[in-house]
Write a structure and sequence with these properties.
The protein has 20 helices and no strands. With 562 residues, the chain is an all-alpha fold. The chain has 2 domains: 243 residues, no CATH class; 228 residues, no CATH class. The longest helix is centred in the first third of the chain and has 34 residues. The two termini are 39 Å apart. About 1% of the residues have low confidence. One of its GO terms (molecular function) is dolichol kinase activity. Keywords: Endoplasmic reticulum, Kinase, Membrane, Transferase, Transmembrane, Transmembrane helix.
């Protein structure tokens, strides 16, 4: 039985619809096809989510979380469209080239293709379950016709839009094939994530992660192909130009993540072979096997980070020196400021982590409040650096993400001698959204603060955009939880007082904007759109059952771009 619109429209879906409507209402007429495609994607994702409400047995998702399909499907495409609106303003002012605008257009369509591909995959799964007479699934002919209509209309709009930015029909076909590869890769990846890491994420959270990874590494692959073609063939004979001018820091971060991805896949294969030989040789003690396994791990990691990843970086971007030496040169170009900032960060981390770890072991304080202290720690660490050393903070975020990934790999695979120690330490800060398989909260907090900063590189006419993650998570989410837990009476959700979060972010903005003006920023942020952005992200924090660290900064960033 199909739910009525009023019954189906819960708080989370209403906020998501308003979020999409706010972005669509700010579109110029030149982006009308993009508006139509995002509208179709929103309606299709709502339809799939409603049909999947009683069908979550398809995958073992995170307990206590709703499917979140609609939120996961529209967040990344809407964010790309908001960025496209911002770049359209820049292009009209002749501050960027047409290539940058076309690159962001392809990013929007690639993100949409990833999400649309996963929605089609989920629809097929539900249809097959209904065909097999599963009592929890029921799909009518009307459902199939509606889904097919959305997919066809989306494809037609995509073809028309790509034809307007392509010089030839072959170029259009090539771009459509590229988008099709994105959709296929997203489907395979979300299957792998949900099956390999059961009970670690909702479908919406997995969809956001999947589309982000496919988009990020797809961009890396396209950039690499373009560069290799120019190296193998004479540049005068090759007109391939992909993307935008990339900074050294951006390439280094991409290279490090690429190296860790390759390392994880290769080391997992080596471990399987090694375990086979372990079974064949029972004379060796377990401790010696663990030591040998550890030596292979760290040797492989070092080789990837020193040789493999820098080799890719030097192919894509013409570094004059080895990227590791470039990092040292960059840090020492302003030694007093940057080394002082490193000392400040290390001291703050050491004191805070030691204090919070002892509290978590010996105190009865609620875990959710303890974790919010880390949000305040993020504010005290990142806010001064973002104002006075933004480029160095970009690099530091990449380094922190790499360290987190390595520690999580060590924890999951229990690499001697750190694996068990890291597991015990990290378990002291987990809550119901983490599992023994994966601990994701620290990743979501770090990326929630970092992504708005990384995305705002280049042209930026909205000074608060880089602060979207710090404001929404470090201040808004923290104050909502703390004030709501202690004083909240009218509770819209279980996570805190929404009013306290909204007021605290607005108060922080009123202090931050004059401070930015004193450092040379040209202020173009108006208060009414800012109020809408803060209120929408606050309401999403109140109503969503998804991992708010992942979604709220992206929603807030998207609304600040308008």
């Amino acid at each position: 039985m199909v739910a009525s619109p009023l019954t189906a429209m819960n708080g989370e879906r209403a906020v998501v619809f308003f979020f999409v409507f706010r972005v669509l209402s700010s579109l110029p007429l030149s982006l009308l096809p993009h508006a139509l495609s995002l509208s179709l994607l929103s309606v299709f994702s709502l339809f799939v989510e409603i049909r999947a409400d009683g069908c979550l047995s398809l995958f073992k998702t995170r307990p206590g979380a709703s499917s979140g399909i609609m939120l996961g499907a529209v967040t990344l495409p809407t964010m790309m469209l908001s960025k496209l609106i911002q770049l359209s303003r820049a292009f009209s002012l002749q501050q960027i080239e047409i290539g940058e605008l076309e690159h962001m257009t392809m990013q929007f369509w690639a993100a949409s293709a990833c999400c649309c591909g996963v929605l089609i995959f989920l629809s097929i799964l539900m249809w097959r379950a209904s065909y097999n007479k599963n009592p929890h699934f029921s799909c009518s002919v009307w459902d199939a016709k509606f889904s097919l209509s959305c997919v066809i209309l989306f494809s037609v709009v995509c073809c028309i839009s790509l034809a307007t930015i392509s010089h030839t029909g072959f170029n259009t076909a090539l771009k459509l094939l590229w988008l099709l590869c994105h959709g296929f890769a997203a489907v395979k990846l979300i299957q792998h994530l949900l099956n390999t890491f059961p009970c670690c994420a909702s479908i919406g959270e997995a969809l956001l992660l999947t589309s982000g990874l496919v988009l990020y590494f797809g961009d890396m692959l396209a950039c690499t192909i373009s560069k290799v073609c120019r190296l193998l063939v004479s540049p005068e004979l090759v007109s391939i130009r992909y993307g935008i001018k990339r900074s050294e820091i951006g390439i280094i971060i991409q290279g490090v993540l690429l190296g860790l991805l390759i390392f994880s896949a290769v080391f997992k294969f080596v471990i399987h072979l090694w375990e086979y030989f372990w079974r064949a040789d029972n004379s060796e003690s377990r401790q010696n096997k663990e030591i040998r396994r550890s030596l292979i791990f760290f040797a492989s990691l070092g080789f990837n980070m020193i040789v493999v990843a820098p080799s890719w970086m030097m192919i894509v971007l013409d570094f004059d020196v080895h990227p590791i030496l470039w990092i040292f040169q960059f840090v020492l170009s302003e030694p007093l400021k940057r080394l002082s900032l490193c000392i400040y960060w290390l001291g703050l981390i050491y004191a805070s982590v030691l204090r919070f770890y002892n509290i978590s072991k010996n105190s009865k304080i609620e875990r959710i409040l303890l974790r919010k202290y880390y949000h305040l720690l993020a504010v005290s660490m990142f806010l001064p650096a973002l104002i006075y050393q933004p480029k160095f903070l970009d690099l530091a975020f990449g380094a922190a993400l790499a360290v987190f990934l390595v520690l999580e790999i060590i924890r999951v695979w229990r690499i001697w001698p750190l694996g068990q120690l890291v597991h015990q330490f990290m378990s002291a800060f987990t809550d119901h959204r983490d599992s023994d398989i994966l601990i994701v909260s620290h990743f979501s907090l770090l990326l929630g603060c970092a992504l708005p900063i990384w995305m705002s590189s280049g042209f930026n006419d909205r000074p608060l955009i880089p602060f979207a993650g710090i404001l929404s998570l470090g201040i808004g989410d923290t104050m909502a939880s703390m004030v709501g837990h202690k004083y909240g009476v009218l509770r819209w959700s279980k996570t805190g007082s929404t009013a306290a979060g909204i007021v605290s972010v607005l108060a922080a903005c009123s202090v931050l904007l004059p401070l930015l003006a004193s450092t040379g920023y040209i202020l173009t942020q108006h208060w009414f759109p800012l109020l809408i952005a803060v209120t929408t992200s606050g309401l999403l924090e109140a109503y969503t059952a998804q991992l708010d660290n992942a979604f709220i900064p992206l929603v807030f960033y998207s609304l600040l771009c308008l």
